[in-house]
Amino acid sequence: MTAMDHVATTPIPDRPAVQAALRLAGRAPSIHNTQPWHWVFDGGRLHLFADLDRVLPAADPRNRQQLISCGAVLHHARTAFAAAGWHTDTERFPDPHRPDHLAAIEFRPWPDPPAGVPRRAHAIAERYSDRLPMLAPPEFDTTARALRRLAEPHDVDLDVLPEESRPRLAAASEQAAAAHREDLFYQQELAWWTGHSDVAEGVPETALVSAEEATRTDIARSFPTAPHSARRGALADAARLVVLSCATDTRELWLQTGEALSAVLLECAAAGLSTCALTHVTESGIARRTVAELLPHPAVPQVVIRIGLAPDDGRPAPTPRRPLDDCLELRSEQ
């Protein structure tokens, strides 16, 4: 039932099909790779919950970045199910008494999803966050139009920032990082989630950049540095910068931003482009206002994305993921 060239013929996917789709969806990006989601399959419907044990009170005091992460895994899951022949009718925030209940999904067979769906589903396993300097993406105007079309159904705008705006955005990124350097609580939280090996969560040392590499990537979240290395030589970052923004700042739109982010990242990966999504610079304060001022229309910025072309220097090792049993609960049909 999970093969992309096999059309589902039963009313709902069976448990192995659900497990296969969610195992793939678990590759979704999340803040500090916290993977802050929990799935419940009741035998008929699939439910997505925010995992309240995986909040980041220092880095994400409003849980905005957590909901963006959950929106990304929701879209990853819907993409995986669609590629396997299942349409997912999704109700967001279905229970007003359970704000952590983010989505309820019902299924129906979908033998002919749009052509782009299998491409993006295949790209789930290929996508990764590239924190190193990148080359400029070729023919980016055409790519940007395609990305904008993918973001619009989620009520999210996508704008490409002009190159001359890079110094202001770099200054805003540095300002956001500087605000946390003397924050002991923030630094302790960051240390908990980064730089470890042999764990199923967090940002491993292999995904970090060295101090030298960081100097050539001027717009980035500040992480602990890896041992000295100088990958990609003297390459200075030439990635294009895009911003996902919304008309207002609500929990519903945070979730939808994550869905739009997923669509954009997967389309880029399918096109052979590298990406790095940044939410620290749009979290609050002067940095967020700076990003808003760079947009050509009034909006609330939610995510900045670096999009570029990685030199042919090998892919990094995949970042770890939690075992599926840790984030999926299978119940008998209600």
In short:
By secondary structure, the chain is an alpha+beta fold.
The counted number of beta strands is 9
**Which spans of ≥5 residues are poorly predicted at pLDDT below 50?**
1-9
Major sheet: order of its strands? 3-4-2-1-9
Order of helices and strands: HEEHEEHHEHHHEHEHEHE
Put simply, the count of helices is: 10
Largest sheet: 5 strands, mixed
| Portion of residues within helices | 25-40%
Distance between the termini: 23 Å
Strand content: 15-25%
What's the rounded overall pLDDT mean?
93
Q: What gross morphology would you assign?
A: globular
Gyration radius over CA: 19 Å
The helix-and-strand class reads alpha+beta
Can you describe this structure?
The structure is a single chain. The protein has helices spanning 15-25, 64-83, 116-123, 140-151, 166-181, 184-193, 211-214, 251-270, 285-294, 324-327, and strands at residues 37-41, 46-50, 86-92, 101-109, 157-160, 240-246, 274-278, 300-308, 328-330. The chain is of the alpha+beta class and 334 residues long. It is globular and about 55 Å long.
